[in-house]
Amino acid sequence: LPDPRAQIGSADDASPANISVLMAGGDLWALWEAGSPLAMDPETLETRGFVTLRDDLRGMPFLAHPRVEPDGTIWNLGVGGRQAMVWRLGADGALQDAQVIALPRASYLHDFTATDRHLVIVLQPWVQVRQTMPFSAGFDWQTGTGTQVLVVDKDDLTNRRVYELPDFGFFHLGDAWRDGQDIKFD
What we know:
There is one protein chain. This protein is mainly β. Helix content is 0%, strand content 43%. It has no helices and 16 strands. The strands form five sheets. A four-stranded antiparallel sheet has the order 1-2-3-4, with no helix packed on it. Strands 5-6-7-8 form a four-stranded antiparallel sheet, with no helix packed on it. A hairpin with a 5-residue loop joins strand 5 and strand 6.
């Protein structure tokens, strides 16, 4: 827990920005999962400040594991309970779109994957059931509820399917791809 004298008004006030990095335009972004990217000079690592992709979205979560398409388009999520912000950015880091989608449940989500046409969001049965600190203590493993795979069309985020699988947990995902009508992922 933070020192009670700490002035923490948002996730950015306590940002470790220490999980991964992403080149966006001329900046190197340091990422974590609960707040904004932290822009740095890619050569000196001098901090340039938190990235605000749109004023009304200041401080919104931006996961540490975005997916980058061959043309440089950046896809990412920002998760909060049973909803996620879907971020689409250009290769230069400029915001192209940001939309909130509903999730079937409030699973712990550290990573997602994507095909050329779909976002693949795996929702394990480790579900947030209470707001508490530390954050992880608010989740319970719900045996027998299965793992859900939410597949969202990149061109129309309202076009979605949910697949039910047996219980399994994960932390990171590899690539996803289409194999005929099937979607596969590591």
